Amino acid sequence: MSESTEKKMVRLRSSDGEVFEVEESVAKVAKTLQDMLEEDCADAVIPITCVRAPILTKVIDYCKDQVMISSSSSTTNNPNERTEQERKAWGQKFMEGVDSSTLCELLVASNFLNIEGLLNLGVDKMVSMIQGKYPQEIRDMFNVVNDFTPEEEEEIRNQNAWAFERDPYYKKRSSSK
Amino acid sequence: MEMEDLVLSEQTSNKSMDSYLGNDLLTEILGRLPIKPLFRMKSVSKLWNRLISSDQLQRKMRLSPGLFYRFLVIDCEPEIYRYVSLSDENSDEGAIEDISLSFLPHYPYTEIIDSCNGLLLLLWLETDGVACQMEYYVCNPLTKRWVALPGPRERVGFDSARLAFDPTVSPDFQVIHICCPSDQTVTSIAAEIFSSATGQWVESSHPCEPVPPFFLPHISVFFNGILYFMNLPQYIMGFNVSEGKCCVIRFPEERRHHAFLKICKGCIYFVNNDNFVINVWSIEDTSTYEWTLKHTINLKALNQQVSLPLCDLYRSNILHHSFYPFDFHPEREAVFLKSHCKIFSYHFMSSTLEELCCSEEPLDLESHTFPFEQSVSTYRPHPNALDWAPSLLQEYPMTQ
């Protein structure tokens, strides 16, 4: 049949019921799906129970890009350096504008689907979001309840006061002459 | 699709995001934070505090070794310390930058005289010919906590005081001031020991095997409660600080210029520099104190192997000691070497030389020290000690 020469397609269903049809090679970027497909235990439609449609869209975008990269990597003259640079730039662009709650969902999705590259991108993005912030900003961002008593919080703050200093030279003591 | 516009579904909206992520993912994220932001996050919530203090995360965190070196500035301040992080293999994880000791009183007239597991011992000394003013400081350069100590009774050899601090055993530190022997044959070691637990100096005398009179130690390591110091050409002396016992260990070969001791992966290392040959000896069993020759390298061969800039090569050949080993990596089989303005590390396993840093002016590494050599990965804090070394000094009452 003529269809057998066409690329094999896989269908994925998000937690909110939307069905995505992707090439098998794209789905296989996710190790979890790869295992299922290779063991041939995948149903006609694979339910991705913990990932919502908008997140799954993003995940599929990532996987498509990975497939594209691996098939066209021999076209550049200087593959190592350029791919590394491009990869970084692409990763930054891919994560641009992603807010913290979306990022959390992406992290959980890439963890569940076992997509190491996406997980790494997500974790790095999260680190960049967290590292300049203060605890209250983190609580707001993650919707975390402060379960310390004021005394406990004060104590922990005092123990780690050094970590709150922005300027390492701010407490310049006047030496004797 | 605009990802920012997404609204959280029920599965995420009624949970806090951190519990949605789960402890494993959160630990993964926290594990990649630099040290300062990480410690700031301890006050987010009890869960975050617990995760940051957990063994799992502590094993992931590591501080690269780094060193303070004295920067000689002519016509200006007499000495100023600079800190350089000696992280290798392209990983700057755990590297700490921007450490200044300017928070200490009398800086830059305060001199580092010893370091031990994250703490520094410094001395400020001022003499006007008649009167002498001095003070010791023990500080944690990372947390900038410091205490001033009174001086010992014995007024000779202030700068040979040694610091003993093992956060895995006790949150307290000790400063050991060995007194200069006056007899022809030394049969006991007289010492004054300051303990941060009591805040006092205590004088004591400890019998030892007869040895010739010695100089006061400037090179020592503190390991398993014993201060090992080099003060005689043929011997290392081991002084058990809490039990007051002394032992004498004979060197495996004649000690040369620039020889030093080091603790690497729980063994005592003796790095000897004989002309252009570096021998690395180790003691694996401290009940027998038997030496094993671990490594040997020829610096001349090393010079040829790598493309050192011509000026450095020139200097190394002319000035015998301008390319020499000065320290050993606390966890890897690697020796640190210094040339005129550069620091290298030589990895014995891969036989490779790597340039770590380059200064525009000559480096004075006589005063080098590794303040953070105990990586958190091997760190098992004492139950009474605060979570981690950066907080350890806090319990000690501040004396201004």
Structural commentary:
- The complex is a heterodimer of chains A (177) and B (400).
- Chain A has helices spanning 24-27, 31-38, 53-72, 79-95, 100-113, 116-130, 135-142, 150-159; strands at residues 9-13, 19-23, 45-47.
- Chain A has 177 residues and is mainly alpha-helical.
- Chain A contains 8 helices and 3 strands; from the N terminus they run E-E-H-H-E-H-H-H-H-H-H.
- In chain A, helix 3 packs across helix 5 and helix 5 packs antiparallel against helix 6 (116-130).
- Chain B is built from 7 helices and 23 strands.
- Chain B has a 4-stranded antiparallel β-sheet with strand order 3-4-5-6, with no helix packed on it.
- At the A-B interface, helix 3, helix 5, helix 6, helix 7 and helix 8 of A face helix 2, helix 3 and helix 4 of B.
Structure described in brief:
Chain A is mainly alpha-helical. Chain A has helices at 24-27, 31-38, 53-72, 79-95, 100-113, 116-130, 135-142, 150-159; strands spanning 9-13, 19-23, 45-47.
Reported for the largest beta sheet of chain B, the result is:
4 strands, antiparallel
H-E string of chain A: EEHHEHHHHHH
**Could you tell me the mean pLDDT of chain A?**
80
**What's the arrangement of strands in the largest beta sheet of chain B?**
3-4-5-6
- Report the major sheet of chain A: 3 strands, mixed
DSSP summary: helix tally of chain B:
7
Mean pLDDT of chain B: 74
The structure class of chain A reads: mainly alpha
Radius of gyration of chain A, rounded? 23 Å
